[in-house]
Amino acid sequence: MSFLMSSASAPRTEKVPATAPVFELIEVEKVFQVRPPNSGLSRKTVGLRALDGVRLRVDTGTSIALVGESGSGKSTLLRVLLGLDAPTGGRALYHGAPIREARAKGRDFARDVAMVYQDARGSLDPRMTVEALIAEPLRHFNIVQKDQIKARVAELLDRVGLPTDAGRRYAAGLSGGQVRRVAIARALASEPSVLVADEAVSGLDVSTQAQLLTLLRGLQRDMNLTLVFITHDLGVASYLCDEIAIMYLGRIVETGPTDVVLNAPAHPYSAALRAAAPRFFEPMPEPLSGEIPSPLDLPPGCRFSTRCPAAQPDCGERDPQLGRFGAHRAVACLHPLTNPQA
Amino acid sequence: MTAKAAPAPATVPPAGPSGNGAARGKRSMFRRRPFFTVALIVSLAYILGAIFAPLVAPYDPVAQSIDAMMQPPTGAHPLGTDSYGQDILSRVIFGARYALIIGFCSVLIGAVGGLIIGLAAGLSGGWLEWALMRLIDSILALPSLILAVAFIAILGQGVDKVVIAVGLSMIGPFSRTVRADVMQVRVQGFVEAAHLMSIPYLQVVWRHVLPNVIFPLAVQVTIRISEAILVSSSLSFLGIGVTPPTPDWGLMIAEGRDFVSFAPWMAAMPGFALALLLIALSIVGDGIREEFDPKGRRGS
Amino acid sequence: MAMTETDTLLTVSDLTLYRGSAKILDHVNLSLARGETLALVGESGAGKSTIAMALMQLLDGARIEGRADLAGAGDLFSLSSRQMVRLRGKRLSMIFQDAGAALNPAYTVGRQLITTLRRNLGLTRPEAYRRAVDLFAQVGINDAEARLSAFPHQLSGGMQQRVMVAIALACNPDLLLADEPTSALDVTIQAQIIRLILSLTRERGASCIFVLHDLALASQSCDRIVVLYAGQVVESGPVAEVLNNHRHPYTRQLKSCVVEIGRADLVAPEGTVPPHDQMPKGCRFSTRCPRALARCSDDAPPPMPANPDRGGPHDHVFACWNPE
Asked: Which CATH number fits the domain that encloses residue A230?
């Protein structure tokens, strides 16, 4: 479940309704102080709102896709979720406690929340063998006895579909798909309950991508992982994730169950993304006009109003917040495209 | 460096051209780089000659003989003799000892000093980094020969003093390359990944930053040995390095300079030995760098 | 689509390309009619970009066999590099995946466009400037006069690609090669750029070869499709015909890997492309093919017409001994 924090009682996941969600973001805001372009020698800085009023809730055991184009704030949101950046406003909670505090308190957060980087190759030390790379978290978190490390590494390699002899190789000698598998094995080594993956299958051939997607889905189901999956590909999101959150210019504009949102998008931006995704033999859609505005120069009112094909006069005046839309959805639009279903 | 490309596992595409290239490179590096191979053999010959100098050299390098002064190359003295009647071949062979010892030791001093300063500058940031970098810049502003001369002026003459002087003069360039490598490594994904795993900072430096800095440094060492030898020989040539009658090439060239018109072999032979060693070491250093640098290899 | 000889713009016959001992392309045959858009699809290592680069003579250190006949210019592979320079831009031009890297960062985009116009069309500076403003407007760059004086890094990825399209079409070539022109861009921008390329080439009556990895995108944007696997053409023909009534097992595999929205089942294919020194002599897909026969690995299947009654070089063709 991933919508308004005010509706925490909605009991869609029957499993553990009593405990606090894994992640909860309440009006999270992240402002970077930057020097504006063409400012010459002036030292004056302006605030860049990378995140602006983000509300998100990730319950235990769900899989949620964060979807958006470049400049939507996905990466910043990821860094806030991982406790690498502190939000400049609002609250970012992990099991009810601020994420930064949870991270500072000890190894438990680091062990429980594992990360698969977009640049999987860069996230692996080029001077360590695959075996040493996977053994590092095993040793660091004392997952198994010392004499069992080798066996556990072999087990993990097998789990991600790599042969045991891959352990002796270096990342530079592996293909793109293999490197991603190593990164996944390393993330799983600490036995996390949450897996955060940043574009984990992008930039790969379709058959490699298909192999990784089936692997990730199997892992998520078998190990009951909570999955936060950042992607730009709606097909990947719909295959892998129960929930979806669509971001535009630092704000989540629509969230809800993936199939419902993608079948009947309520926000015009969701609809545009949906239409732009290539589909067999559909005529090329009328694309969105223009490009994403600079976050330094947000349009007044709704931030999507400059490109929105369904913009009304009041869209340029009032800034819509993410609000409830039916039972399990939320949308930030003054004139949603569909009617909420109960 | 790379493990040999094992047969690609069933589920994943093979490593492609890069993987195959690495495996192919492993097998025939010596055949693909003939210059490197020749240079390596030459360097090894120098090293062996230096180690076994007493066995290889036909004469005592400091034994003077009034009967055989300034003889041109003959059967008895293949490279001739100098103005004291010392055998030049023997002196060149023993000279390799001094050249190589001074080269290795001073580069080691430079590399260790550079590693410490470079790591500190690259990791600290803030005012400490600023202060260290200005220090390095001021060292770099002077050529290493001038610096070595200055250190000799403070320390005095002798082989050990030359080693220290040349070593200190090389700290500057080493620390700059180390710092550049540190800056590059510390923003890499794997360092952030280790941080994310809440591995303590010093452990990250020890386990992930240092190994990725040490290797390029080792390559630098092989390249800079020749520079150190050149500087030490220049010091001797200027008459402020090692003292006579030590069989040092720089010294021998300086001594032969006065007789160049009628006994050219006196300066030419040690000069040739020096040039050959420097060229061979440079080629070896370059070959090692090109072959093992992971940045150059990652290509595709 | 009835074809006569005069309609054909480009015919590639038996193109085989070696790099060292590795055979990167293996007897590739293609033909392209005037005004047609063709998609080259396949996975990495299939050789789809290599074909485009070979046509532009942009490959170093490759040994090429076979012919590529461009109408009115003869065999491209036998032209000298000087003759090729004269052809590039005017007859055929290319746009790349990474427009930011293809543009020279040291010059304004306007200067790069104007230089192209002046060199290839012999225009005077004011003429070229007017033409450049015109072209920028055509590729949908608002405020063209101001944008001409921008440096590449000051433009977004989508804008850079528009500039590349403007430069590529500046001299009205009749063949445009687009190598993954949108895979570095966001999906909404991708739709803009593909539509732009299609409408501009159509307006000019030019042909276009798209190198793509996305089958669905190929089905939306192209007339015909060529499916490549490890340097061999496995199937080609009209896009709807090939994708709906595929005959080659690899085309099925490629199709089955496309993750469409709402798709719940996904069967990942087994295996991997063999390295070049272990490539089978015959059909290169035979090592992974679920329908492989004994002869497949030794005996390369020739191109066979899917509809023998219709025939013609432009119709649906596949290369398989045991077609579906």
From this structure: 3.40.50.300
